[in-house]
């Protein structure tokens, strides 16, 4: 149950020094903007404001806004833009961002790496400011107690690089794409090739520092265990601005083994994929074997589909070969297919950098961007060969650049209970599917066409995947699953549609935490955990609390 910590006391609200011009709430849009700017200027008086606040007039404004937009669908001339971009240098700058925007009724969107699939970290349809944590990138690795403090604006690549600098036998179990930001990734779960051995990134967080809706800086002790639970997988954007995370580093051998085997239709790829479903979730924890279907143009120009089987083994090649021979002989792995390397080198391999690429690319925060739409599913029963064939054939579609990734669960993922953190997809899941379609043409017509293709693919898959709810992964955010009204007035029956897909029964507990720590629903977006109050009406919050209490009993 949500406990009432001191931070949520309404009294604390008044501890924030609100000063400045008294504004009339009826002032025009332009005045609000001016006053908001003045609020920042006066509060940031001790530092050069030009380094922290960007107005739409500033010549760097668009470059900063665009810098980490990963999906150009949300970077068009008509995409709503923030009134101000704030790039805080210190935690007090973040506190001021909360107090000023709260004072002037302007929403905040927080961005770490900008990978949000629906652009929620930098787009809103109500007046908003963007707090971009680009200056919060520091990482301090402590090999003595296998931990690190990592700021939210750091990328996964930076984290892997800094760990490897200090140790060849420590790692962190997080995602594959090096430019993904720590802030969004850890607050939504975060998985990668170490998932069956060590769980999610969020499973390995042991402390955090955040600024709450009252502008107060909290750590694990002062936020309390309920809020600390919520930010590890519940999506950070509902609860505050998380500045940094303390993570546990996990042991890996100095040498790991990887392989990638590509199989085409003529080589029995569909049969192998069918078999994979029985094998991969039951392999030893040290062996992670995922499968990827990609649509490619062939030499003859026609579309073909390739299945690739990518594996990470925490051990040497001579130990891996017999394991595969025993567990999955059909795949036909040969010793010569295996490559030995350090764990950090394997992070490059799985992101398709050529062998021998310098580790420095992990520090590159930019990636090649394409228009895309993606969705996720969980699979609890193996899909029939027929079912897989239908999926395969859909990928052969001429105009679509589609990709489907199958990531096995099991191992450590099944040992952690559904309610340990808000991420609920544990025992009983064989694997997760990630569907993605990408395109290059600009404009809404192209975009609608490709999105409609992936929606049809998703309907096709319905009989084969989890039901009641049809579960989904919040870090693969999908607004097709349902949205709140951005004005905050959302009913429970409306919110639970998407809420149960991402969080199952943890959704109700997330709501209780939300009501306690952010009763006015200051931090919100189209898929934030709702507080079921408008303007901080305490009576209705109280009522909700009790209704939910009984739902949970
Ligand atoms: C190319 C690509 C590859 C990916 N690969 C993987 C993968 O291998 N494994 C995996 O699990 N996921 C993967 N993802 C998904 C990724 O984990 C999520 O998109 C994640 O939320 C991105 O975090 P971010 O900080 O980059 O995103 P942002 O867009 O900055 O943020 C995402 C959400 O979190 C909120 N948020 C961000 N920072 C904070 C903060 N400091 N405090 C509070 N709220 C915050 C934002 O407001 C937004 O709602 C991938 C995404 C892409 C685009
Ligand atoms: C824009 O911002 C930059 C960097 O923050 C600052 O140096 C510059 O003075 C600003 N320019 C204008 C026109 O405000
Ligand atoms: C931009 O600058 C013009 C004058 O140069 C000013 O009139 C306008 O108010 C400014 N707009 C913003 C959003 O700061
Ligand atoms: C970073 O990666 C991008 C995208 O691949 C590339 O265009 C750019 O040149 C790289 N930057 C550096 C400094 O290597």
Automatic annotation (TrEMBL):
InterPro entries: BBE, FAD-bd_PCMH, FAD-bd_PCMH-like_sf, FAD-bd_PCMH_sub1, FAD-bd_PCMH_sub2, Oxid_FAD_bind_N. Residues 1-26 form the signal peptide. GO terms for molecular function: FAD binding; oxidoreductase activity. The keyword Disulfide bond applies. It comes from the Eukaryota. Residues 78-252 form the FAD-binding PCMH-type domain. SUPFAM superfamilies: FAD-binding/transporter-associated domain-like. Its cofactor is FAD. Keywords: Disulfide bond, FAD, Flavoprotein, Glycoprotein, Signal. Belongs to the oxygen-dependent FAD-linked oxidoreductase family. This is FAD-binding PCMH-type domain-containing protein. The lineage of its organism: Eukaryota, Viridiplantae, Streptophyta, Embryophyta, Tracheophyta.
């Amino acid at each position: 149950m949500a406990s009432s910590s001191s931070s949520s006391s309404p009294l604390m609200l008044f501890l924030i020094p609100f000063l400045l011009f008294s504004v009339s709430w009826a002032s025009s849009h332009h005045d609000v903007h001016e006053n908001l700017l003045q609020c920042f200027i006066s509060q940031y008086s001790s530092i050069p404001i030009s380094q922290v606040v960007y107005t739409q007039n500033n010549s760097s404004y668009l470059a900063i806004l665009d810098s980490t937009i990963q999906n150009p669908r949300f970077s068009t001339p008509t995409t709503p833009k923030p009134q101000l971009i704030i790039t805080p240098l210190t935690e007090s700058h973040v506190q001021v961002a909360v107090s000023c925007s709260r004072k002037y009724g302007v929403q905040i969107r927080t961005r770490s790496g900008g990978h949000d699939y629906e652009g929620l970290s930098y787009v809103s349809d109500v007046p908003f400011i963007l707090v971009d944590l680009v200056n919060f990138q520091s990482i301090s690795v402590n090999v003595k107690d296998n931990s690190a403090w990592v700021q939210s604006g750091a990328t996964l690549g930076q984290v892997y690089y800094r760990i490897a600098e200090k140790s060849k036998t420590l790692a962190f179990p997080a995602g594959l794409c090096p430019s993904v930001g720590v802030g969004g990734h850890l607050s939504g779960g975060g998985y990668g090739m170490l998932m069956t051995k060590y769980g999610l990134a969020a499973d390995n967080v042991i402390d955090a520092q955040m600024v709450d809706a009252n502008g107060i800086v909290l750590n694990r002790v002062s936020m309390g265990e309920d809020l600390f639970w919520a930010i590890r997988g519940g999506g950070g954007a509902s609860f505050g601005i998380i500045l940094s995370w303390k993570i546990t580093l996990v042991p890996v051998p100095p040498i790991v083994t990887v392989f990638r085997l590509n199989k085409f239709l003529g080589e029995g790829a569909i049969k192998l994929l069918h078999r994979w479903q029985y094998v991969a979730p039951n392999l030893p924890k040290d062996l992670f074997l995922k499968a990827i279907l990609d649509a490619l143009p062939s030499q003859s120009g026609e579309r073909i589909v390739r299945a690739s089987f990518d594996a990470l083994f925490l051990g040497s090649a001579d130990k891996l070969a017999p394991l595969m021979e025993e567990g999955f002989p059909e795949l036909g792995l040969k010793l010569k297919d295996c490559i030995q390397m350090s764990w950090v080198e394997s992070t490059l391999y799985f992101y398709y950098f050529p062998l021998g690429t310098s580790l420095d690319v992990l520090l590159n925060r930019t990636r090649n961007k394409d228009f895309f739409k993606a969705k996720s599913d969980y699979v609890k029963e193996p899909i029939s060969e027929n079912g897989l064939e239908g999926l395969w054939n859909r990928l052969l579609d001429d105009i679509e650049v589609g990709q489907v990734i199958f990531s096995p669960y099991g191992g450590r993922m099944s040992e952690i209970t559904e309610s340990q953190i808000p991420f609920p997809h544990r025992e009983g899941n064989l694997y997760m599917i990630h569907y993605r379609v990408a395109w290059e043409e600009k404009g809404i017509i192209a975009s609608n066409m490709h999105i409609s293709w992936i929606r049809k693919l998703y309907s096709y898959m319905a009989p084969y995947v989890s039901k009641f709810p049809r579960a989904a992964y919040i870090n693969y955010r999908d607004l097709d699953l349902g949205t709140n009204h951005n004005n905050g007035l959302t009913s429970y029956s409306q919110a639970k549609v998407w809420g149960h897909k991402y969080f199952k029964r943890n959704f109700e507990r997330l709501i209780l935490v939300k009501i306690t720590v952010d009763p006015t629903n200051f931090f919100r977006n189209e898929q934030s955990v709702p507080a079921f109050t408008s303007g901080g009406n305490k009576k209705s919050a109280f009522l909700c609390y009790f209704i939910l209490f009984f739902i949970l009993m």
